[in-house]
Input
Amino acid sequence: MVVAVVYPRIRIRLVALPSLLFSFRAGKLIPVSAFRHNSSRSFNGPSAISTSRRDHSVDPRVARANYDITQLSRQGKMADARRLFDETPHKDVISWTSMISGYVRCGMLHEARALFERSDSEKNVVTWTALLSGYIRSRHIREAEELFGRMPEKNVVSWNTMISGYAENGLVDEAYELFHRMPERNIVSWNTIVTALAQSGRIDEAYWLFERIPQRDVISWTSMVTGLSQNGRVDEARAVFDRMPERNVVSWNAMVSGYAQNSRLEEALDLFVKMPGRDIVSWNMMITGFIQNRDLKRARELFNNMNEKNVITWTTMITGYVEDEQNEVALKMFVEMLMDGVKPNQGTFVNVLAAVSNLAAFLEGQQIHQIVSKTIFQFDPFVSSAIMNMYSKCGEIGTARKVFDLSDQKDLVSWNGMIAAYAHHGNGQEAISLFREMHQNGFKPNDVTYVGLLSACSHSGLFDEGINIFKSIMKDPSIEVREDHYACLVDLCGRAGRLREAASFIKGLKIGPSATCVWGALLGGSNIHGDMQIGNLAAKKLMEAEPNNAGSYMLLSNIYASAGRWKEAAKIRLKMKGKGLKKQPGCSWIEVGNRVHVFVVRDKSHIDSERIYTLLHDLHDKMKRAGYVPATNHSLIEDVDGNFGIGLWMSEKEEEEVSEQDKPQLWNRGDVKFRVINLYQSLSWGHHYCHHRNHRRRCNAHYNSYFDHKMCLEDQIAVSLCNRAINQ
Output
């Protein structure tokens, strides 16, 4: 009996599904049943249960043909297997079962059913159960139910298979009912229903049945430990673990995982150390536990101490570094993994592409895309979506669309990913057009689709279209409206200057302070339009929910500063300092000619800073001569030491009062310097460059348009504005 453990969440698979493999011994083909976990549902049919019986081929030539049919089907050579089957003159029931089982194994249910229903076919309980298991594996539960009801005879494997099918499809009540109707049960039957009840949260019923199992095996005990742990009753799980008459490595892993999943890492580590024998799953679970509890240091220590690592080990560490925003380390881990000869899987590619997206590392992303294109994962919808997202974050929206168009297996995740990419770039019309195309292709949108669509409308100024989309969401009973949808609507109204409507909408919904994304959207809109009254309300709610979020204080102080209310702005800054809060300084970095240039607010450490400022002054003079009139709003910026000062934008009168000596400070913003060095170096060398920012800067559009216009005059310059923040 085999126990399969699914990592990283421990799930004990216990039920009997017929593998319907055949072993060739002394000229006889003997059917062998393998055990696996599953569950059940009610039906009307005969309740006879057959005793175990072994069929064998009398004719050695037929036995040999049956063996060859089985081997060919295992290799996926179904055409050759069928040719041999058709050429066998005196087929017996094993011949038919071997051929039908081969079709089932290869997922060819239509061919299996056609052969099964032939008038000359020979069938026994193993043949029926083989087709039944095929429907279960393909999640065709109703077809399996109909077939099970027609079975002339059933053995315990047939009943267990049907119970498993119900449980795997979430039909635990039906599984429980069928379990009670079984004329005879074995240990697999008991383990199956106990596991199904525990995994569905009905842990008390599972425990009640567990105590009534006539003869428990190690799987019974382990499944109960796992079930109790998954339902947060880890102390009871430990009590069951201590009562176990015998334990295997899976039992120890289940208990260690239970402690780790419930954030009791010290007890997990103590038990891990005491294990009489560890396998690679034991190490992987312990590393996962540390990562889930944000203890990367100890996870890395365990990782370094492992003698053997598999793809799950590497992927878990890469995922941990991505979640901790250590994207460079995640990329290095991926390179080490390849050098170690470990082949990436779906999870590896998805996570390392997420790291590339966060860094907007275009060249590295291209290289990983090339690696993916040489594997079977190039057709995986999740990996394809990650590739699209990577190109989008690197500013290559056209390439992202090409990846989408070339995908042969588009699913809802792919469509949502492309819509989100258009939203990220503010291409609202393209997002709406793709949404309509998605409808035409028969895909039904979900809540994620609408978040991307509303965000695209918000970033593109498509107010009316966004309102109509939100109305359609409210009318669709299949969509559960979440805070994200409300936040997108508030952001849409805020950008359109409809702050009063947005505030009234929030009031009507009776949204509390915990809905931080909604209040954050309202505060962002208030900052854009300088509405102190609504900004105060939103900031108050945000500070109640997140008292240590420096961003809320900064936005409110900017609202006061924009209105010239410096005393109130100063009070907010003092309150921040009193709490020890600091907002991450504004930072931009660009990649030019395989070199990365980083700029922080008020930082002069760049080797070409003198030439950059010279070019800035020259550009400033040209802009003034061209008729540029600066905006009159103020903003507060924070330097690398956490000190605050008035931002770049000021009135002409205030600008005249600033001495020439102090003017370089006004140009010391990272988002201005990046454009200057891009202009300086790109025009000189003709390099492709990419610009990135760590957070959104609401700069004066005149500066942006002037620089962009200048750059567009040069054919060799490819402009890629990347990592656009959600609130842009």
About this structure: Confidence is low (pLDDT under 50) at residues 1-52, 632-674, 679-688, 695-728. The longest strand covers residues 16-25. The CA atoms of residues 294 and 323 lie 9 Å apart.
